[in-house]
Amino acid sequence: MHIQKYLLFAHPTLSVNDVRPIPTCEYRWQNGQGDSKTHGGIYRIWSGMTPEIVVTHPDPIWTIFNDSNQHIKASNNDAGWLMGQLLRECLGLISDSNDLRLLPFWVFVNILYGELNDTQREKIIFILPLREALFRRIVDGDLRKYKCQWEEIKMSVYLARRDAEEEPPIVEIYKAVGKGSITSKSLLQTLEEMLFANLDVTIGGLSWNLLFLASDKRMQDMIQQEFQNRARPQGATRAWEEYIASLNTLLNASILESARLKPLSAFSVPQSALFNRIIGSYRIPAGINFIVGTYELNIRNPYWGENRGKFQPTWFLKRKPLEMRY
């Protein structure tokens, strides 16, 4: 209770007439909790002791994010010290590392580093459980141990590729470090993000599309027929390349629809505006982080129709992208 009073005093966010405070979740150690059913379309939660403004309706989103290119991302993604130690100069999350997840991991490792020998693969397999455990709040000693081992593996693979006069992407990246274009720390954390964070998120998102399509035979047939209709005039190879690149296809619509129904996270990445914002009837000070409640916005909002909880890719072919941007 005393912490709650202090936080409300330290972070005043009031209505435009300075009368009503913004609806706020009660502070709980370590994070405040709440949803729009209790607090409405705009409310405040606590990430640790940092305030975040949650937006769950589309109307104020343009006001908040129309200059998002000038926004400042939250330090360590508002995910704490450990995240900063691993990905301070990058953003992303990692999930489990079971065999299914490791398949795309190894594909991407081979693209980045070239084909690994058995010893190099065994070294990476050895440290994977340690990397996973770091997200379970393992002590600082394990963090240092992991970082040292991972840096050693990366350097040894790079040196082996360089000495063999091979040039996978990792060689060019290390050359950039030697030229001073990027720092060694930035390199190591970017590789961390590429191999564990972004890849995991991307594969997770695409996997839902496969599951939705696998359970919808009618949509499978429609996508197959759509591609065949495009392939007849110009041949399969060229048609396939153009089909994959096109944004106006059922396949692309199914990816968008699966992303709508299964958001990668409950909230967007926290970011703050450089200037005060009037959101609804509240004045939000500059520097306060905003996050978007993706479930409320993408699934529960009436905009998506009566069957908004069902997989309906054709919906995206009936609307212009600009119409759905916010």
From TrEMBL:
Keywords tagged on the record: Iron, Metal-binding, Monooxygenase, Oxidoreductase
Reported cofactor(s): heme
Molecular functions per Gene Ontology: heme binding; iron ion binding; monooxygenase activity; oxidoreductase activity, acting on paired donors, with incorporation or reduction of molecular oxygen
Protein name as catalogued: Cytochrome P450
